[in-house]
What does this fold into?
Amino acid sequence: MDTNTKELVNQGKMLPLMEAFYTIQGEGYHTGKAAYFIRVGGCDVGCHWCDVKESWNAELHPPTSVETIVENAKKYSDTIVITGGEPLMWSMDYLTNLLQKNNMKTHIETSGAYSFSGKWDWFCLSPKKTKLPLDEVYNEADELKMIIHNKSDFDFAEQQAAKVSEKCELFLQPEWSKKEKMTSEIVDYVMKNSKWKISLQTHKYLNIP
It folds into this structure.
């Protein structure tokens, strides 16, 4: 990467774009809504069950101008979901400003492990044990989405729920490889703890991206 490109990436005017696609939001509060997903490369959170590990190395994904990303997004939807990887590794200010200037709603899905940036209409926080969210991120969360891989994750979910604001929607989602076992555990848990809702990866059941 040359010096000029590196500087543009540091400013958030270029981003390591892994992929972008129009689909149906499969998880959480906005399940079932059509949205355009922008997947940004780069992540060091290291979830062993991550289903997009190819996103981890940002150097594999070419720096792409934010103007190009936004022009492509405008063709598809007024709801844009920024995901990764870990999108907050990069400044999101320039991207979200340009999206909102074009009357598009900005959503993010993040572990919260990096400093807050960007202007968001919906902020989905999905904390991971391997690299916890920064304190500054919790109050921004509109949605807390906890991935449940084993029973100890329920305790972790409660610890994280205690840190978000009262307006935050709370979701428990079974990790896909454990979905048969953990979905039934989650159903039982939610019936006993009704502040939580269930999130399923419905896009995988529908066999769409």
